[in-house]
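**Reference record**
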Amino acid sequence: MRASFFLGLMAMVLLTASDLQSQTPVVTPLAQPAAAVSAADQAAAQANLVLLQQLKTANAEMLKKQEAVLTTLDALQKAAEEIKIYSKRG
């Protein structure tokens, strides 16, 4: 019983292995050499870089303004809490 189970298992392994080996190979094309960058592409890339730098500067300014507003709001919140505390005392 045990021997027939082992033989059956070995036969399944051999059949599976033969199926795996009979697959067709995958052929990939060779990599193409990089094309030369034209002057127009370089100009467009330079314009994009300038635009991105301007956006970065604008974002930094916006973050500074937001930080100032948050600081002001924190001060107002603390003042409101103090008013609540003083109003409960009197």
Notes: The two ends are 96 Å apart (CA to CA).
